[in-house]
Amino acid sequence: MIRYEFWLKRVITAVAVTMSLFHLYVAYFGPPNAFTLRATHFAFALVLAYLSLPILRSRRGAGPGMLDWVFLVVSLAAAAYPIVELTYFNTRMAYVGPVSTTDQTMAVLMIIVVLEATRRAIGPILPLTALAFLGYQLFFTNTSILRLLEYQYMTTDALFGIPAQVSATYVVLFVIFGALAERMGIGKLFMDFALALTGHRAGGPAKVAVVTSGLFGSVSGSAVANVMTTGTFTIPLMKRIGYPAPFAGAVEAVASTGGQIMPPIMGAAAFVMAEFLGTSYLTVAGYALLPALLYYLAVFLAVHFEARKQGLRGLPKADLPRVGVVLKERGHLFLPLAIIIGTLMSGFSAPYSALMGIFSIVPVVLLRRTTRSEFTLARLVDGLEAGAINSVIVALSCASAGIVIGVIAQTGLGLTFTGVVRAAAQDLLLPALLLTMVAGIILGMGMPTTPAYIVQVALLVPALVRLGIAVEAAHMFVFYFAILSAITPPVAIAVYAACGISRSAVWATSWAAVKLGLTGYIIPFMFVFGPSLLLIGDWDVIALSAVTAATGVAFLAGGLSGFFVKPANWATRILFVAAAFTLIKPGIWTDLSGLSLGVVGILINLRWPAAALVTQAAAEPHLGPVEAPAAAAIDPSDFLEAPAAHPSPKMPDT
Questions:
Q1: Going by C-beta distance under 8 Å and a sequence separation of 6 or more, which residues neighbour residue 62?
Q2: CA-to-CA distance for 211 and 256, rounded, in angstroms?
Q3: Separation CA 643–CA 505 (nearest Å)
Q4: Does 386 have pLDDT greater than 70?
Q5: Do 106 and 83 touch, CB atoms closer than 8 A?
Q6: What DSSP letter does each residue of 321-373 carry, written as one string?
Q7: What is the mean pLDDT of residues 21-25?
Q8: Helix, strand, coil shares, percent, the chain, to 5
């Protein structure tokens, strides 16, 4: 048995590294035919899924069983058929040419193996959603099963459509970049840099979590992977200085989730958005920049106000790394990110920019003696393997989402849904936005961001555009709520991951996360009513919108936490929240009203007798403010806690 597991591990490594090298080759020399590229991409993903995720959970780690090998062989056959019959696939006329029995059989098998692999990787919600759409098309429309299978499998509009193209060309390269960067010490740079900047301030570890998760999340693009990477260090530190466990877990979950909207890399769905909008990825990153900064400003202020309210101190400055030392010894590791940004800004494509970033990692690590030890051949192989394995969930999600997109496009369901939303909202913008928000969160629960966003683009974006919303704002609106479903109960996968480390109750942590991330739920309404927050329009208007939005974010954080300059009473908190909501809608009168309410709240807060700082009972010393011992320098291993049993994801959610 041990020998079998040994060789299985070697096979998985070989397949994963080959997948990464294949995509690096394609990025450098150019992609082959669409069917060849996308079918090969899916073949790698399916093989890795069936090798790594046996149908019986009891066999996880012991390798695939007989049924798993059957699925694997069928996957290879179904994915190879379009490649072997490439001339036939490229020259036949859709809806005119015959669909042979072999064509139909392979189409059915491909749909089955994709949905089953997706179920194993991320759970049943997305496959069941795809089956529901297929059932709708078969039983409630006039589409024949022959035409359904033809459209799904023999065209590049459904299963092999735009989501597959984005996964095979954009996403996999950036995932490989993130995996290599993490294993070559860039993740450690982010942690040390955040500790040096904010670790000594009030509530320092929580601020470290916000800064580190923003930096690392912009590279990984994965909420759960971000939690499991940075949270194992930041959550125990937050608990150590006195933050309650639910709050500590919530901070990490919310900060990690925001990485998907933080340029320069963001999450996989951002590349899909660029494809749907027909624009460059750099343009999409520009749309996301200001809202992402507002999101992190809100979380940063929330943890600051909470720390001040509870009297929580930071870590001893003497025990922390210094900014100058960190930049001197490891600052050059920022260069791969700078290379990606510079290449994008020079007008090159996102895949080429990612490729340049990947190629730069090893030379940059070897550039200085202080980081040369980070590079080993084993780490390089491990990074290539992890990059491929981490991209499996995106590939399978895109394949399943492509099935849904195919049904919507072939049946015209998107137009029907648009009519339903407009009728329910009675053509009023705010009710339509609220309905879209709820639908987006529900669609995103239990799904990775990418398929959740793709489904919403097909069902919800047309309704918003018909109501007069700018198409860029409509896409960003649904993109945000696809992301925020990761911290929205009852299915809050990022919160589940954080709870495993913080050992806190899921519901308490979920509601703390919603409170912390409330600004994230409001920001989409802000840029719908004022597209200037997406850097669209005149620069003077953009600057004014940025200032008033940041002011509103500060008021909202103070109102929700109950602290601004000092502890605030309920009247002051109401004024702050009212000021924040008034500043949502751009306009001179709403801005003046919001600022006036905020100024009144500040004056009352300054004049009101300061309440005693919140302290915990002596019976709960671990929740009260404590002073970190001035001991040896901070070492992450000193604070790691074994995660409690929890339903951890099988693969990172990208």
A1: 1, 5, 54
A2: 10
A3: 13
A4: yes
A5: no
A6: PPHHHHHHHHGGGGHHHHHHHHHHHTT--HHHHHHHHHHHHHHHHTTSTTTGG
A7: 97
A8: 75, 0, 25
Q: How far apart are CA 449 and CA 334, in angstroms?
A: 27
**C-alpha torsion sign, points 281, 446, 254, 227:** negative
Residues 340-353 pLDDT 10s:
989 988 888 889 99
pLDDT band at residue 123 under the 50/70/90 scheme: confident
Cα distance between residue 566 and residue 43, in whole Å: 59
Place of tokens 């929330």: 302
CA neighbor of 255 nearest in space, from 235, 284, 281, 269: 235
Report pLDDT digits (tens) over 136-192.
999 999 999 999 999 999 999 999 999 999 999 988 998 899 889 889 988 888 888
Tens digit of each residue's pLDDT (9 = 90 or more) over 213-254: 877 776 666 677 778 777 877 888 888 778 889 999 999 999
Instruction: List the beta bridge partners of residue 563.
Output: 567
- Residue pair 467/427 in contact (Cβ under 8 Å)? The answer is yes
Q: Of 232, 263, 262, 264, give the one whose Cα is nearest residue 249.
A: 232
Helices and strands (DSSP H and E) totals, the chain: 30, 0
What amino acid occupies position 561? Answer: S
What would the 3-class secondary structure string for 597-644 be?
Answer: HHHHHHHHHHHCCCCCCCCCCCCCHHHCCCCCCCCCCCCHHHCCCCCC
Task: Give residue limits of the domains in the chain.
Answer: 2-155, 168-375+412-536, 540-612
Could you give the percent of the chain with pLDDT greater than 90? 45
- Provide the 10 A C-beta neighbour count for residue 229: 22
Chain center to CA of 192: 23
Instruction: Report pLDDT digits (tens) over 539-595.
Output: 988 999 899 999 999 999 899 888 888 888 888 899 999 999 888 777 788 889 999
| 567 bridge partner residues | 563
Side-chain-side CA neighbours of 304 within 13 Å: the count stands at 17
Mean pLDDT (the chain, rounded): 85
SS3 567: strand
- Token couple for 503: 């050992």
Q: Which is nearest to 498 in space by CA: 490, 482, 486, 515?
A: 486
